[in-house]
Amino acid sequence: MPDQLPDWLGQALPNARPAHAGLVAAKLGSPQAFEKGGFKLSSAAFRDGGELDPCFTADEEDSVAPPLEWTAPPPGSHECVLVVEDPDGIKGKSFCHWLVWGLPAQKGQILEGEVPPRQGKNSFGNSEWLLPDPPTGAEPHDYVFQLFALDLPLTLMPGASRDELVEAMDGHVTAVTLLTGTYAREEGGDYDWEAEDEE
Questions:
Q1: Which of 5, 105, 147, 194 is 20 to 30 Å from the Cα of 41, by its Cα?
Q2: Measuring CA to CA, how many Å separate 180 from each of 42, 46, 68, 87?
């Protein structure tokens, strides 16, 4: 039986649907932790629920991760962790696009294209920003940027998996904030994405 989407998360997401129950925020977040103390994530490149520019996706060469900025987490926080997932992944599972930890528990930012020092494995097994690459003609996919504040510093080594990160974070989330970007690939594109996947 699939997990149910928590009420607080359904209200927080601009395009909430059952698939979002697979997000890390659904497991580790809570209504008490959501945007606690004014903790807020934003981007100069897109608004919450807005479309990602192709320069952050697989549709352009030399694409990079979008810029992000956040306000200070509540007192008692020791580290911030970023998890980016597409809830409409393969076989009903969330698809992990980015895992970043070791971010200072203060007002901060990740610049466009910046490579954070501590990254975990995305769903392709690489420690980097996994470019959004939705099927041609599909409904827009959501890319949910989830920023968590923790009450302890993590000791994970770079290259840890999503499950390892979630296990280390469990029970230590002091606050969580969300930002959703969307992306869809129009019908009629002339690029052979299947060939690209096979390389």
A1: 5
A2: 9, 9, 12, 11
Q: Give the chain's mean pLDDT.
A: 91
Full residue range of the structural domain in which residue 19 is found:
7-186
For the cut 60, the answer to whether the pLDDT of residue 198 exceeds it is no
Residue 79 within a domain:
yes
Residue 53 within a domain? yes
Let me know if residue 150 belongs to a domain: yes
User: pLDDT tier at 3 (50, 70, 90 boundaries)?
Assistant: confident
Dist. CA 153–CA 104, nearest whole Å: 9
Q: Minimal CA–CA distance to 86: which of 44, 122, 126, 136?
A: 122
**Residue (of 10, 12, 28, 3) closest to 148 by Cα position:** 28
Provide the whole-model pTM: 0.92
- Tokens representing 129? 């920003």
Instruction: Give exposure, 159-183, as e/b (b: 16+ Cβ within 10 Å).
Output: ebebebbbebbeebbbbbbbbbbbb
- Nearest Cα to 16, choosing from 70, 88, 82? 88
SS3 112: coil
The answer to whether 112 and 102 have CB atoms below 8 angstroms apart is no
Q: Residue 197 is inside which H or E element, if any?
A: helix 193-198
Strand-strand pairing, 173-183 and 50-51: parallel
Q: What is the DSSP letter of 19?
A: G
